[in-house]
Amino acid sequence: MNLEAILILSGIIFTIGLYGSLTKRNAIVVVMCLELMFNAVAIAVIGFSRFRPPQVLVDTDVLSPLNVLSGHMMAVFVIAIGAAEVALALALIISIYKVKGNIELTGLNNLKN
Amino acid sequence: MEFADLPTLVDIVFWIVALFTIFGSIAIITVNNVFKSAVLLALTMVSISILYFLLSADFIGVIQILVYVGAVSVLIAFAVMLVKDVPKSNSANNLINLSIIPSTIFLVIIAFSVGAENWITKTSIDYEEPLSEIVVSNVSWIGELLIREYFISFQIAGLILLAALIGALALLRRER
Lengths: 113, 176
Prior knowledge:
The complex is a heterodimer.
Chain A: H1 3-23, H2 27-51, H3 55-58, H4 65-68, H5 70-100
Helix pairs in contact in A: 1-2, 2-5
Chain B: H1 9-30, H2 34-54, H3 58-79, H4 100-116, H5 119-122, H6 133-136, H7 139-147, H8 151-172
Helix pairs in contact in B: 1-2, 2-3
């Protein structure tokens, strides 16, 4: 287990989420793929925080909690924003269902004509 | 083979969990049933939290299970009720072949930029060992950082959650 393996894993998960959110017709699956992309970013920052604390950024050799745990803090905020995003996305999906009767994103071209 | 070259238990668990995460993510977008892919999303989130535990981020792993497996998966399983034809509901649109191109370009860029950097020599810390006491017992340090250095960000995150809640209620309010 090293930093390269974790970054490559994070990139693969982000790519799967990107591909799914580009190609899926169902709104729920698009939300799931967005959550996958959020989690890929969180894996990357946790990996940076574990293997390479950003001492070069703060120009000190002291391992203070502010240096070592900065990735953890970013992951906390990523998870919080992900939870807020999924609540809003569910409300939007229910609104789409009220208007259209289904939740297929392909049919949402009302502004086209 | 030297004894030091043998993979440790952490390495074996990491590779198993990484493979499970990748195949779980692929299965989310390839199974035909949306409900199955919601269950697979919960399983993938559990394996990602095991990855956080391996990276000695205990608090983030617990929060991952609480938020994603406990709350987000329940919300998504609730949204599955709106789907008409559940067994064949995970169909793709007509971008299914064209989307391979930007995804592949993105993955190639990530792989080249990870491979171009020499990560290990730039850190002054022996990365096989746990970093320090800070990483080993990080829950109390995260609490202290949240109310000291990251206080404004913490309050703004709370405001964003409140705004998302009010926005969701306002979207679903019945017009009279």
